[in-house]
Amino acid sequence: MVNQEDPRVLRTRQLIKDSFRILLQKKGFDSITIKDIAEKAAINRATFYSHYEDKYALLEDITEVAFNNMIPEQVLHAEEFNGETCNQLILMTYDYIVSFYKTCRMDSKSIATIVDEKIRKMLQQMIETIFSKDATFSMRDTINIKIISAMTCSAIYSAAYTWLKEGENERPDLLLDIARTYVMKGLDLYRNSDV
User: Residue ranges of the HTH tetR-type domain (predicted)?
Assistant: First the structure.
Protein backbone atom coordinates (compact mmCIF):
# COMPACT_ATOMS: atom_id res chain seq x y z
CA MET A 1 0.00 0.00 0.00
CA VAL A 2 1.37 3.40 -1.01
CA ASN A 3 1.60 6.05 1.74
CA GLN A 4 -0.25 8.97 0.15
CA GLU A 5 1.45 11.51 2.46
CA ASP A 6 5.03 10.46 1.66
CA PRO A 7 6.76 13.39 -0.13
CA ARG A 8 8.22 11.00 -2.72
CA VAL A 9 4.75 9.68 -3.50
CA LEU A 10 3.39 13.21 -3.81
CA ARG A 11 6.26 14.20 -6.14
CA THR A 12 5.77 11.13 -8.31
CA ARG A 13 2.00 11.71 -8.56
CA GLN A 14 2.64 15.34 -9.54
CA LEU A 15 5.20 14.25 -12.13
CA ILE A 16 2.66 11.81 -13.60
CA LYS A 17 -0.01 14.53 -13.72
CA ASP A 18 2.32 17.07 -15.31
CA SER A 19 3.47 14.56 -17.93
CA PHE A 20 -0.14 13.66 -18.71
CA ARG A 21 -1.09 17.35 -19.15
CA ILE A 22 1.82 17.90 -21.54
CA LEU A 23 0.82 14.85 -23.56
CA LEU A 24 -2.80 16.03 -23.68
CA GLN A 25 -1.68 19.20 -25.42
CA LYS A 26 0.30 17.24 -28.02
CA LYS A 27 -1.83 14.14 -28.55
CA GLY A 28 -5.45 13.19 -28.30
CA PHE A 29 -6.52 11.45 -25.09
CA ASP A 30 -7.39 8.26 -26.94
CA SER A 31 -3.89 7.90 -28.38
CA ILE A 32 -2.05 8.46 -25.06
CA THR A 33 -0.78 5.21 -23.56
CA ILE A 34 0.50 4.39 -20.10
CA LYS A 35 3.87 3.82 -21.74
CA ASP A 36 3.77 7.41 -23.08
CA ILE A 37 2.97 8.80 -19.65
CA ALA A 38 5.64 6.69 -17.93
CA GLU A 39 8.30 7.66 -20.47
CA LYS A 40 7.44 11.36 -20.22
CA ALA A 41 7.53 11.16 -16.40
CA ALA A 42 10.77 9.11 -16.48
CA ILE A 43 9.24 6.34 -14.39
CA ASN A 44 8.42 2.73 -15.18
CA ARG A 45 4.94 1.47 -15.89
CA ALA A 46 4.78 -0.41 -12.58
CA THR A 47 5.29 2.90 -10.77
CA PHE A 48 2.43 4.44 -12.74
CA TYR A 49 0.17 1.53 -11.81
CA SER A 50 1.07 1.84 -8.14
CA HIS A 51 -0.51 5.32 -8.27
CA TYR A 52 -3.33 4.98 -10.81
CA GLU A 53 -5.38 2.11 -12.15
CA ASP A 54 -5.36 3.53 -15.68
CA LYS A 55 -5.38 6.84 -17.59
CA TYR A 56 -9.10 7.27 -16.85
CA ALA A 57 -8.43 7.24 -13.09
CA LEU A 58 -5.63 9.75 -13.66
CA LEU A 59 -7.94 12.00 -15.68
CA GLU A 60 -10.62 11.78 -12.98
CA ASP A 61 -8.11 12.68 -10.26
CA ILE A 62 -6.78 15.67 -12.22
CA THR A 63 -10.32 16.85 -12.96
CA GLU A 64 -11.46 16.57 -9.35
CA VAL A 65 -8.41 18.27 -7.86
CA ALA A 66 -8.47 21.13 -10.39
CA PHE A 67 -12.19 21.74 -9.89
CA ASN A 68 -11.94 21.63 -6.09
CA ASN A 69 -9.05 24.10 -6.18
CA MET A 70 -11.25 26.57 -8.07
CA ILE A 71 -14.12 26.59 -5.56
CA PRO A 72 -14.31 30.03 -3.92
CA GLU A 73 -14.40 30.14 -0.11
CA GLN A 74 -17.75 31.91 -0.30
CA VAL A 75 -19.27 28.91 -2.08
CA LEU A 76 -17.64 26.39 0.26
CA HIS A 77 -19.26 28.05 3.26
CA ALA A 78 -22.52 29.19 1.68
CA GLU A 79 -25.56 28.75 3.92
CA GLU A 80 -28.03 29.78 1.23
CA PHE A 81 -28.26 29.84 -2.52
CA ASN A 82 -28.45 33.55 -3.34
CA GLY A 83 -27.50 35.69 -6.32
CA GLU A 84 -23.86 36.05 -5.25
CA THR A 85 -23.45 32.30 -4.69
CA CYS A 86 -25.01 31.74 -8.11
CA ASN A 87 -22.55 34.23 -9.68
CA GLN A 88 -19.60 32.45 -8.08
CA LEU A 89 -20.78 29.04 -9.32
CA ILE A 90 -21.34 30.33 -12.86
CA LEU A 91 -17.91 31.99 -13.04
CA MET A 92 -16.15 29.02 -11.44
CA THR A 93 -17.78 26.61 -13.90
CA TYR A 94 -17.01 28.84 -16.86
CA ASP A 95 -13.38 29.32 -15.75
CA TYR A 96 -12.97 25.57 -15.33
CA ILE A 97 -14.37 24.83 -18.77
CA VAL A 98 -12.10 27.46 -20.35
CA SER A 99 -9.00 26.10 -18.59
CA PHE A 100 -9.94 22.54 -19.52
CA TYR A 101 -10.26 23.38 -23.20
CA LYS A 102 -6.96 25.28 -23.13
CA THR A 103 -5.19 22.28 -21.59
CA CYS A 104 -6.62 19.54 -23.77
CA ARG A 105 -6.83 18.93 -27.45
CA MET A 106 -10.48 18.39 -28.02
CA ASP A 107 -10.32 15.99 -30.94
CA SER A 108 -11.35 13.22 -28.57
CA LYS A 109 -14.97 12.91 -27.57
CA SER A 110 -14.17 10.43 -24.80
CA ILE A 111 -12.17 12.89 -22.69
CA ALA A 112 -14.84 15.58 -23.02
CA THR A 113 -17.53 13.11 -21.99
CA ILE A 114 -15.57 11.90 -18.97
CA VAL A 115 -14.71 15.40 -17.76
CA ASP A 116 -18.19 16.75 -18.47
CA GLU A 117 -19.79 13.97 -16.42
CA LYS A 118 -17.36 14.41 -13.51
CA ILE A 119 -17.75 18.20 -13.35
CA ARG A 120 -21.53 18.04 -13.57
CA LYS A 121 -21.61 15.49 -10.76
CA MET A 122 -19.35 17.60 -8.52
CA LEU A 123 -21.24 20.81 -9.31
CA GLN A 124 -24.59 19.18 -8.63
CA GLN A 125 -23.34 17.81 -5.30
CA MET A 126 -22.07 21.26 -4.32
CA ILE A 127 -25.42 22.86 -5.17
CA GLU A 128 -27.29 20.11 -3.32
CA THR A 129 -25.16 20.74 -0.23
CA ILE A 130 -25.96 24.46 -0.34
CA PHE A 131 -29.69 23.79 -0.83
CA SER A 132 -29.71 21.38 2.11
CA LYS A 133 -28.39 24.20 4.37
CA ASP A 134 -30.78 26.80 2.90
CA ALA A 135 -33.85 27.16 5.15
CA THR A 136 -36.04 27.69 2.10
CA PHE A 137 -35.18 24.24 0.79
CA SER A 138 -34.37 22.29 3.95
CA MET A 139 -38.06 22.01 4.78
CA ARG A 140 -38.70 20.25 1.49
CA ASP A 141 -38.38 16.60 0.66
CA THR A 142 -34.86 15.33 -0.14
CA ILE A 143 -35.95 14.20 -3.60
CA ASN A 144 -37.10 17.75 -4.37
CA ILE A 145 -33.67 19.08 -3.41
CA LYS A 146 -32.01 16.49 -5.68
CA ILE A 147 -34.23 17.42 -8.63
CA ILE A 148 -33.83 21.19 -8.14
CA SER A 149 -30.06 20.72 -7.72
CA ALA A 150 -29.87 18.73 -10.96
CA MET A 151 -31.83 21.37 -12.87
CA THR A 152 -29.78 24.24 -11.41
CA CYS A 153 -26.54 22.41 -12.22
CA SER A 154 -27.69 21.75 -15.79
CA ALA A 155 -28.61 25.40 -16.32
CA ILE A 156 -25.26 26.67 -14.99
CA TYR A 157 -23.10 24.10 -16.77
CA SER A 158 -24.95 24.35 -20.08
CA ALA A 159 -24.85 28.15 -20.05
CA ALA A 160 -21.09 28.21 -19.33
CA TYR A 161 -20.32 25.56 -21.94
CA THR A 162 -22.46 27.21 -24.62
CA TRP A 163 -20.95 30.61 -23.85
CA LEU A 164 -17.49 29.24 -24.55
CA LYS A 165 -18.54 27.32 -27.65
CA GLU A 166 -20.37 30.29 -29.15
CA GLY A 167 -17.25 32.44 -28.86
CA GLU A 168 -18.43 34.93 -26.23
CA ASN A 169 -15.25 34.46 -24.20
CA GLU A 170 -14.60 38.17 -23.75
CA ARG A 171 -17.91 38.90 -22.00
CA PRO A 172 -18.42 36.69 -18.92
CA ASP A 173 -20.42 39.59 -17.42
CA LEU A 174 -23.16 38.92 -19.99
CA LEU A 175 -23.05 35.21 -19.19
CA LEU A 176 -23.56 36.08 -15.52
CA ASP A 177 -26.53 38.32 -16.28
CA ILE A 178 -28.26 35.74 -18.44
CA ALA A 179 -27.56 32.60 -16.40
CA ARG A 180 -28.08 34.17 -12.95
CA THR A 181 -31.40 35.70 -14.01
CA TYR A 182 -32.62 32.38 -15.40
CA VAL A 183 -31.50 30.32 -12.38
CA MET A 184 -32.64 32.75 -9.68
CA LYS A 185 -36.06 33.41 -11.26
CA GLY A 186 -36.63 29.66 -11.52
CA LEU A 187 -35.62 29.17 -7.89
CA ASP A 188 -37.86 32.06 -6.79
CA LEU A 189 -40.81 30.44 -8.57
CA TYR A 190 -40.02 27.13 -6.88
CA ARG A 191 -39.60 28.73 -3.44
CA ASN A 192 -42.99 30.40 -3.75
CA SER A 193 -44.78 27.28 -5.00
CA ASP A 194 -46.66 24.71 -2.94
CA VAL A 195 -44.59 21.81 -4.29
Answer: 10-70
